[in-house]
C-alpha cells in the first residue's frame, strides 16, 4: 500500500506548425508497474480527461465558473455531469454536445425530449 512510484509522461504535439511539449507527472500505488504499463495507464487517463472534461470545459464553460459558496460548486458539477449524460443519450439530432445544449435553450420540445432521458413522464 501507499506510494509505489513516480512517473513522468512527456508528450509533444505539433498542430498547424506549432509544436508544444508538455510533461505530466503522476504518482501511483501499483507495485512493479513497467514503463509500458505506466504509459498505457496514462493514455487511458488522458482519454477520460479529454472525452469528459473537454466537453465540460467547452460546452458548459466549467473552467470559467466562479461558483464557490458552500456545496454549490459540487452541486453544479453534478448537474453538469447529468446534463452531459442526458445530451449524449439523445440521438435524434446529429450535433455535438454544445450545439444540443444550445438547442435546448430555444426549442422546448427538444428540451423535453432530452429530459425524457430522466424518465420524468414529460412529453
TrEMBL record:
Any one GO molecular function term: DNA binding
GO biological process terms on file: DNA transposition
Domain Transposase IS4-like span(s) in chain numbering: 30-86
Domain of life: Bacteria
Name of the protein in its database record: Transposase IS4-like domain-containing protein
Organism of this sequence: Eubacterium plexicaudatum ASF492
Amino acid at each position: 500500500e501507499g506510494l509505489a512510484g513516480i512517473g513522468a509522461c512527456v508528450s509533444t504535439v505539433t498542430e498547424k506548425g506549432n509544436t508544444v511539449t508538455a510533461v505530466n507527472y503522476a504518482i501511483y500505488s501499483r507495485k512493479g508497474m513497467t514503463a509500458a504499463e505506466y504509459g498505457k495507464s496514462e493514455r487511458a487517463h488522458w482519454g477520460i480527461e479529454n472525452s469528459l472534461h473537454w466537453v465540460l470545459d467547452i460546452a458548459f464553460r466549467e473552467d470559467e465558473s466562479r461558483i464557490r459558496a458552500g456545496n454549490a460548486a459540487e452541486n453544479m458539477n453534478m448537474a453538469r455531469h447529468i446534463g452531459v449524460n442526458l445530451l449524449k443519450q439523445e440521438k435524434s439530432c446529429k450535433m455535438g454536445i454544445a450545439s444540443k445544449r444550445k438547442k435546448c435553450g430555444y426549442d422546448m420540445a427538444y428540451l423535453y425530449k432530452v429530459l425524457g432521458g430522466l424518465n420524468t413522464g414529460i412529453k
